Amino acid sequence: GGRPQAEYRLRDGFGGDVARLRLTSDEEGVIRFHFVDRGGARERPATWEQLARPLEGLDLTWIDLSLSFLWWPGAEEAGADRAAGRDTVLINLPVPGGPEGPRPMLRLWVDPETGLFVRAESRDARGTVTRQLNVKTLRHLADETWAIQDIDVVSFPARTRTRLFVESFEVTESEPEP
Q: Which helix (H) or strand (E) holds 84?
């Protein structure tokens, strides 16, 4: 089989590509992020700042859409709680690349039965919640592949709310490794 890869496309109301992000994994399992031009012929590496910046007209980032925080190193179990009507395990993930000492982190509420997260909160270095993602609907795509179909995002302190519903998914086979 090939190495894992994914592509995310934002489309306008007429179905035209507005933006595309491709994720690929190298031999060591390191995830690489690249923006793809409208024709699909050229790619350019995406920086952390670009991935963390809200998308135009949305209160979502590429990190939110791609769920790339699920690959961040340094995860630590932080107890148990209830979320979305389920018993969950709390997982703390430090934001990569920050300074030593207190730094921003992400807290996940993970359903131990499915292994899927049902809620996530971004917290600043002081521990104040800055964003909250609540999974409303998951969709089973293939074998062990699941995707979030419906997610609610709230930003603090303004309490702005964005609801994302994914209309369609396409699962394709990755290119075989040479």
A: none
Q: Which residue has the tokens 């086979």?
A: 173
CA quadruple 39, 40, 45, 51: dihedral sign: positive
Residue 87, pLDDT score = 95
In three-state secondary structure terms, 48 is helix
Do residues 40 and 32 lie in contact, with contact meaning Cβ atoms separated by under 8 Å? no
User: By three-state DSSP, how is residue 52 classified?
Assistant: helix
What pLDDT is attached to residue 101?
65
What residues contact 63, with CB distance under 8 A and at least 6 apart?
Answer: 51, 52, 69
Contact between residue 117 and residue 103 where contact means Cβ atoms under 8 Å apart: no
3-state secondary structure of 159: coil
Residue reference for tokens 């290119």: 175
Query: In the prediction, which pLDDT does 1 show?
Result: 46
Cβ-proximal residues to 131 (8 Å cutoff; 6+ apart), any chain? 121, 122, 153, 154, 155, 156
Mean pLDDT per block of 10 residues along the chain (178 residues) reads 70 80 81 82 88 82 84 91 94 80 86 89 91 86 74 87 78 55
The single residue listed with the structure tokens 């090939």 is 2
Phi, psi values for residue 107, rounded to 5°: -110, 130
